[in-house]
Amino acid sequence: MADYFEIYEIDVDDVQMRIFIQSLTGEVRTWFRGLATNSIDNLATLYQPFLNRWEKKKYPLHILSKYENLRRGPQETVQDYYTRFYSVYKAIPQNLRPPPSLALIKFLDRFDSDMAFQLRE
Q: Is the pLDDT of residue 1 over 70?
């Protein structure tokens, strides 16, 4: 199968995305068709908007637990960790969300001491 894709220069990700899109029905298909033309060019750019719109909302305690257990991955860039941290922080219901100043402290505490010091500066 891989040889077939290589001979005809077929991109596997493109095929996967097209199959996924064809599986959409009802409201989900209507939502997808409402996206701006050429705004989705691969599965990665479809993933987050799709989840933002269609993922079942989690219980507040689940989100708070996820927030409390957030850790920066060993190979994760600061920007990637910030993006992940901020998305979890914003998912916390407003009435349970810690103030931004406390969130900043929690964010910095997830780094080693040297990096946290540099970020504080």
A: no
Give the integer Cα–Cα distance in Å for 1 and 4: 5
Q: Which amino acid is at 20?
A: F
The rounded distance, in Å, linking the Cα atoms of 88 and 94 is 12
Cα angle 94, 95, 97; round to 5:
60
Residues 47, 19 share a domain: yes
Q: Which carries the bigger pLDDT value, residue 87 or residue 10?
A: 87
The predicted structure's pLDDT at residue 35: 85
Structure tokens of 60?
Answer: 């507040």
Closest CA to 89 of 72, 105, 58, 67: 67
**Of the residues 54, 73, 97, the one at which a domain ends:** 54
